[in-house]
Amino acid sequence: MNIDLETFCQQAEEFISAHYPRRSARAGSEHAAVAVIPERSAAQEAAELPEAIQWRKTTFDAGFGWIDGPAEFGGRGLPPSYADAYRQLERRYAVPDEGYTRFSVGILCPTLLAHGGPELNGRYLRALRRADIVSCQLFSEPDAGSDLASVRTRAGRDGESGDSWRINGQKVWTSGAHYSEVGMLLARTEPGSRRNAGLSVFMIEMDQPGVEVRPIQQLTGGKSFSEVFLDDARVSAQSLVGEIGRGWDVINTTLRHERAVIGSDGAVDLALVPRLIDLARRHGCWDDPVVREATADIYARAQADSLMTLDFLDRAEGGMPGAEMSLSKLRLTDNLQRISALAQRILGGSFVTELDDDFGWSQLALTLAGLRIGGGTDEVLRTIVAQRVLSLPRS
Ligand SMILES: Cc1cc2nc3c(=O)[nH]c(=O)nc-3n(C[C@H](O)[C@H](O)[C@H](O)COP(=O)(O)OP(=O)(O)OC[C@H]3O[C@@H](n4cnc5c(N)ncnc54)[C@H](O)[C@@H]3O)c2cc1C
After folding, report:
1. What is the DSSP string of 172-183?
2. Which regions of the chain does DSSP assign to beta strands (E)?
């Protein structure tokens, strides 16, 4: 169906506003945290998760769930600019947290489109986009984080016909493992293989006897990720993503999309600017030229970075984000660091006291550390930018 962008945005806004109110600069609460990685209690999660899942179903059924996706999997086949316009609109409204399904929607689906094949794509794409299934990423291990080529989890052929695999090993830092139905798992399938050869990727059912999920208590209070122990867990041969032994190609697609999803989330720093101004006003320092200049600088950086990222995404060949998306993630975390520093300057000692009305700002400082690690650490991303974007020699 042909529809111009203006009409599309009008229809999208009518749809969203029929379900949720607009967000306010104060995010509706004196105590609202500004964490970039949400710190949810078990009770909060139990209340939020069903609503987040229901919202994905409602948007999908209304034709806004996969705006630029292929029609055969329930997408509308519109240009990516329409999907981006929808995302910008949705962020103005108090819709449920998209974090619960971010991996499924923004990272796993494009990976499956690139490597999945008809059987896997038929099984998962529509279900993931509609949140009929929620998924997690089982890549990192205690001795394999930045260096995923050191993965030790093993997958061995099982059964006389060899039509299934047994998985043994341990994963760690798996976000959302405790509420996911499936995981995207990286394992070594060729015994004795080294580094990035002999690795394969599978879709694994989380609810089975060989999979044990142990949540990790975080410094910041939440339990958003887990250790996952795999003890003779099973996957079928049909759950292989891509080719056997070529898992490195698959995870590179996943990691590129992961950095694009985090890096293109420019609205995170833009959305915090009105809250910074509100904070400065309430603390009587909005007339302080240093505060005003720092706020203007943060705003200008957020706008420039978001335009830069849109340009990167426009140039993404075949929908595959380029290595330069690492720069977008680095710029985002750098600007968030500036926001955190300015909030600390405004609040002084009360930045860390949980008794103050604005205690949510300390959550920004604490969770920002995680954002600078997940999806590729600052150091690793700088190396990628140096070598693959600027073509500098290897050190
Ligand atoms: C919020 C969050 C969510 C996450 N979610 C998931 C998830 O869902 N699934 C999953 O599989 N993993 C997840 N992770 C794990 C994440 O991918 C790893 O933490 C990350 O890749 C870094 O690995 P590591 O923790 O083992 O640190 P290491 O790789 O051991 O790094 C330690 C330090 O050494 C530096 N370093 C390492 N290698 C180099 C190098 N070559 N050059 C320069 N410096 C280097 C790093 O920058 C870092 O400062 C998550 C992490 C966070 C923080």
Report:
1. EEEETGGG-SEE
2. 135-138, 154-158, 164-175, 182-188, 199-205, 211-215, 225-236, 240-241
Which are the contacts of 263, defined by CB distance < 8 A and separation ≥ 6?
Answer: 309, 325, 326, 327, 328, 329, 330, 331, 332
Q: How far apart are CA 134 and CA 130, in angstroms?
A: 9
Answer whether residue 274 is part of any domain: yes
- Residue 41, Cα to own-chain centre: how many angstroms? 20
- Residue closest via CA to ligand 1's atom 29 equals 146
Chain-centroid distance of CA 37 in Å reads 10
Domain region containing 60? 5-96
Atom 37 (ligand 1): residue with closest C-alpha?
146
CATH code of the domain containing 337:
1.20.140.10
- Identify whether 90 is a catalytic site residue: no
Residues 21-36 have pLDDT tens digits of 997 655 444 345 666 7
Is pLDDT larger for residue 363 or for residue 82? 82
